[in-house]
Amino acid sequence: MPPTFPPTLIGLTASIPDSIQFPALPPIASPHLLVAATTHPSIHGSPRQNEVLEMEAGKEGYEKLAHVGDALVGVIVTLMANDRYPGLPCGGATKLKALVVNNDVFADIARRYELDTSLHAAPNAAAMIKQQTRVMATVFEARVASTYYDYLDSATPGAYATKQPVVPAALPPLPALEDRTDGMAMDYLRAWIEPLFTPILQFAHAEMSSAVAVAESVAGSDIVEDYAAQGATSLLNTEMSKRKRPLPRYTSTNTQLGEWCTTCEVDWDGEVVMAEVVRGTKKQGMTVAAWHVAKKLKLM
Q: CDD domains from the xrefs (predicted)?
């Protein structure tokens, strides 16, 4: 049976380890792109208007760049995961990507690159703004898009101008500006993104594999209990009726992980006997909780 990827794994359990070395950050040669990628909307002092069809001239900001950058990183990481872990089923590949392509990881990367130091925001709110995970994630996404467009817009893109390229000898000869294509720009971007995300992908895959092992061991015990608990609800109801006692009380609450925490409680000779279990459905939770109560009462 293929491994089941646990719904409880919704994020990395730790920040990106300090031992993971990041490649050099590609400089941005285009002054316009650099300003746009480092400008928070608060700098303009005007209210946000998310539904307008046209942006006001002169009000550059990183949000539009971030929209593109998020898509670019998503595509590259998806291809990387597929190439590195070809045996992963679609569900596993989707979960792996979600562990890597998210605000927490992007914000972590942005802070490691110290991109917060170059962010321009309203002076009275700058400190608070730079602490926000979503903001720093957006800063990273904007940097990704500006790196991509810098290759298409600048005669000499940043990584070619620096004495320390993103990956030594990895960048191909620079063609004339008019001969460059989107595909070339993607290759240029991948020269930075792939070495950046390769160890992060490996870290996330190791965490996911560990979570799968734990989930399978837990699932094994759940399966045994679920099988043994068949008929427990009816048995407990019948026993309580015979003793002319109130029927069992069940309460179920939905957890943040999408499962159900169910409690079964009975009054037994003046004593409250109860059991609590977590299952994927209310019905199964009631059955297993009833089984645990019945065991405590030595009915099973």
A: RIBOc (cd00593)
Residues 161 and 265 in one domain: no
The CATH number given to whatever domain includes residue 287 is 3.30.160.20
Nearest to 190 by CA among 199, 198, 179: 198
CATH of the domain at 85: 1.10.1520.10
Strands (E), the chain: 249-254, 260-268, 271-279
For all residues of the chain together, what is the average pLDDT?
83
What pLDDT shows up at residue 57? 46
CA distance 29 to 24: 15
- Domain enclosing residue 93, as ranges: 31-217
Give me the pLDDT at residue 3, please. 44
Tokens of 281: 């459905």
Is residue 23 a part of any domain in this protein?
A: no
3-class DSSP state for residue 89? Answer: coil
165 φ, ψ (degrees, to nearest 5): -60, 165
- pTM (2 d.p.): 0.66
- The whole-number pLDDT of residue 262 equals 94
Domain finish residue from 182, 217, 252 = 217
Looking at this protein, which amino acid is placed at residue 244? K
> Final residue of a domain: which of 217, 245, 278?
217
Q: Are residues 97 and 154 in the same domain?
A: yes
User: What pLDDT, on the 0 to 100 scale, is given for residue 214?
Assistant: 60
Cα-Cα-Cα-Cα torsion 223, 224, 230, 234, nearest 10 degrees, comes to -110
Phi-psi region of 113 (alpha: psi -120 to 50; beta: other; left: phi over 0): alpha
Beta pairing class for 249-254 and 271-279: unpaired
Q: What is the pLDDT of residue 254?
A: 86
Do 251 and 173 sit in the same domain of this protein? no
Low-confidence ranges of the chain (pLDDT < 70): 1-14, 43-61, 163-170, 212-222, 256-257
Pairwise CA distance, residues 282 & 110, whole Å: 42
Q: Into how many domains does the chain fold?
A: 2
pLDDT at 50: 54
